[in-house]
Specification:
This protein is α/β, with parallel strands linked by helices. It is about 35% helix and about 15% strand. The chain contains eleven helices and nine strands.
Length: about 325
């Protein structure tokens, strides 16, 4: 079916911490020593949200389970220094989510694998949440990453469905998986969505080599592979799941022609901390890139889930302020 329009959101990208228990062979985000480790402080966070401009989304991303990482003492000490009385990543991020809401931003958290209790803890202060499945395959790139167990990740996505959390997931292309693995990953996502109807979008993201990583010399997937995956995703997934392609990592126009319909979040104020070498295009550039398709701004919660009422009373005022009659971003409302 022809896309009616192409969507994107405006966000503030908040990397809460880069301390992570996983050591993926392709990751340039994870801290490797005390010298490059950090936890975003409250003052720094407030400076970001106070300068949000027209953004409506606070995108929180972190290393997974930093309490279990080899740099956990550093992480725990930094939490104490924030003065908020938090002892875990989930507690601290929840407090930041509350502050974001007060400053007019709708949180979207992607904190890695969480328990059912942690999902419940964060649900009411998030418009949506996410976790990249990446792949259902067992890969060499994940040999030092306990959180990349496909079973664990699928279980979290299922728990989010049970809790009626609007959810974003996705697959990584080019990290050592085979074509058949991509099909199996898409089929697994479809199966969970058919049970709970909670997946709002799936990201198709290409691998790009990062300096100082074991996969630095590995070539990224060729564009024909990206086209094949997007085409397969559109054939396998139901129409209500949007296919997102990051415009700073792909050539989105050709992928839109094959069924992609979303460009994810872009920020004028913050970089893509996961792919810092790839700046986001601005809104006007996006409009030129996707023409003749119409570009529409959305919120971090998709229209279908606004209509279903899958959000808490804590964020209701912001959704009512920002959402138009279609459930997309209301024009000229800050």
């Amino acid at each position: 079916m022809k896309n009616k329009y192409i969507t994107f959101s405006k966000n503030i990208f908040i990397p809460v911490t880069n301390v992570c228990r996983n050591a993926c062979d392709y990751c340039g985000f994870r801290a490797r020593s005390h010298e490059d480790a950090y936890v975003v402080g409250v003052k720094e966070f407030l400076n970001l949200v106070n300068n949000k401009g027209t953004a409506t989304e606070a995108l929180f991303t972190t290393g997974e389970k930093p309490e279990l990482a080899n740099l956990s003492p550093f992480f725990k000490n930094r939490l104490i220094e924030t003065g908020l009385g938090c002892s875990s990543l989930v507690e601290y991020t929840k407090e930041l989510c509350k502050m974001a809401i007060k400053h007019g931003l709708l949180p979207h958290c992607n904190l890695g694998v969480l328990s059912k209790e942690e999902l419940k803890e964060l649900r009411d202060v998030n418009a949506s949440m996410g976790l990249m499945l990446e792949t259902t395959a067992e890969l060499e790139a994940h040999k030092k990453s306990p959180g990349k167990d496909p079973k664990e990740r699928l279980e979290l996505i299922e728990e989010a469905g049970k809790l009626k959390i609007p959810f974003t997931t996705g697959i990584l292309v080019g990290i050592g998986e085979e074509k058949e693995d991509r099909i199996r990953s898409l089929a697994a996502i479809k199966s969970l969505h058919e049970k709970y109807r909670h997946i709002q979008e799936i990201i198709i993201q290409p691998f790009f080599p990062k300096p100082l990583t074991p996969m630095w010399n590995k070539k990224p997937p060729v564009f024909e592979e990206m086209k094949e995956v997007v085409l397969a995703a559109r054939e396998i997934l139901p129409e209500e799941i949007a296919i997102q392609v990051p415009p700073n990592l792909t050539s989105p126009k050709a992928l839109i022609e094959l069924g992609a319909s979303d460009l994810g979040g872009i920020s004028k104020k913050t970089q893509d901390y996961i792919n810092p070498e790839s700046p986001w295009p601005g809104e006007e550039e996006l409009r030129r890139i996707v023409a003749p398709f119409e570009l529409r701004e959305r919120l971090p919660i998709y229209p279908e889930f606004i209509k279903k009422g899958w959000y808490s009373e804590e964020i209701r005022p912001l959704i009512e302020r920002y959402a138009d009659d279609e459930g997309l971003r209301r024009v000229n409302v800050l």
